[in-house]
Amino acid sequence: MKRIHTFMAVCLLLVCLAPAGSAYGLPRIRILATGGTIAGVGASSTGSAYKPGQLGVDQLLAAVPEIKEVAEVTGEQVFTIASQDMTVADWLQLARRVNELLARDDVDGIVLTHGTDTMEETAYFLNLTVKSDKPVVLTGAMRPATSLSADGPLNLFDAVVTAGAEESAGRGVLVVLNGTVSGARDVMKTHTLDVETFRSPNTGALGYVSDAKVHYRMDGEKLHTAHSVFDVTGLTELPRVGIVYGYAGAEPALVEALVQKGYAGIVHAGVGNGNIAADVFPALIQARNKGVQIVRSSRIPSGPSTLNAEVDDEANRFIAALDLSPQKARILLMLALTQTNDWKEIQRLFEEY
Ligand code: DAS
């Protein structure tokens, strides 16, 4: 009898000492599915025509039985949309659900399956609004599930490996596709078709996944997740911010339209170092004088839009986006406007996030 008690005490001790995870020590990962190409179905395995968001989360998981060897996963279908249709309300719903799940002791990490078109935006939004150090990983696919050499299954497997790795904690929201681990702040989709489409032109990737292990080579510098001041709890919408693209011969009509529609902020995706056509400049000044916040970003995929370069930001009370893309500058400005309308304070937030 004494021997049985000792055996039971040892088992209990082993379970208590086991790293976060199921009774078998595997990490417990929740998969939130939202649609996209990873769930896409095409008429043929070699053609490019397909419908995104056709398969449910259970079908995605059934296609990768190997996942059971690296994690204990449960699935949840949040949306079934192509990510070009993702909205601010969808982001707020995702942030609420992710925060709810990560607050639970029986969830060690989250993987979101998501369309690739706006994945970088959802990832950055969650990077600023998730209130946990637990791993949150977005993944997707450039080829539909029915395609010859579909990339979704291995991307999903790699994303689960990454979300279940203790060394992924505290690194902010991550994007994992094609064996590459990227940080939400700096990653962008750079090719319309390539499986190697996600790159981080200003910083490079954080690491890679191979042989069911994640290998980190660097860390991001900026604030995120548990260290972010932004809290969207209880919010059902965000201040509206639009993006106006810069080009030779641009006219002020689009800026004027956003002001007329009552937008709280405008990101100007300028040429070069965030430069603005002479015909557009007065419309931006006018908008600024009406209380609209103006961010100077650039249509160029790498390099910063620096403060007070060819444009006197101080005099015009413009915000320089630094090395945030226009689409990410828009997200940071929307969240900044939930905290402050002071352009100096907003510029500070752009320095930190
Ligand atoms: N339209 C794309 C999207 O849903 C499909 C994809 O690449 O995931 O983002």
What would your notes on this structure say?
With 353 residues, this protein is α/β, with parallel strands linked by helices. The chain contains 10 helices and 16 strands. Strands 4-1-5-6-7-8-11-12 form an 8-stranded mixed β-sheet. The site of D-aspartic acid has 11 residues, from loops.
Q: Main attributes?
A:
16 strands; alpha/beta; binds D-aspartic acid; globular; eight-stranded mixed sheet; 353 residues; 20% strand
Major sheet: 8 strands, mixed
Radius of gyration: 22 Å
Bound molecules: D-aspartic acid
Q: What percent of the residues sit in helical stretches (DSSP H or I)?
A: 25-40%
Overall mean confidence score, pLDDT: 94
Task: Name the poorly predicted regions.
Answer: 15-19
Strand order of the largest sheet: 4-1-5-6-7-8-11-12
Write the H/E string, N to C.
Answer: HEEEHEHEHEHEEEEEEEHEHEHEHH
- Tally of alpha and pi helices: 10
The number of E-state strands comes to: 16
* End-to-end C-alpha gap: 60 Å
Q: What portion of residues belong to β-strands?
A: 15-25%
Overall body shape: globular
Would you tell me the structural class of the helices and strands?
alpha/beta
Summarize the entry for a quick read.
The chain has 353 residues and is α/β, with parallel strands linked by helices.
Helices and strands in order:
Layout: H1 2-17, E1 28-35, E2 41-42, E3 50-51, H2 57-62, E4 72-81, H3 88-102, E5 109-113, H4 119-129, E6 136-139, H5 152-163, E7 174-177, E8 180-183, E9 188-189, E10 198-199, E11 207-210, E12 213-216, E13 241-245, H6 253-260, E14 265-270, H7 281-289, E15 293-298, H8 313-316, E16 319-320, H9 326-336, H10 343-352
Parallel strand pairs: 1-4, 1-5, 5-6, 6-7, 13-14, 14-15, 15-16
Antiparallel strand pairs: 2-3, 7-8, 8-11, 9-10, 11-12
Helix pairs in contact: 4-9
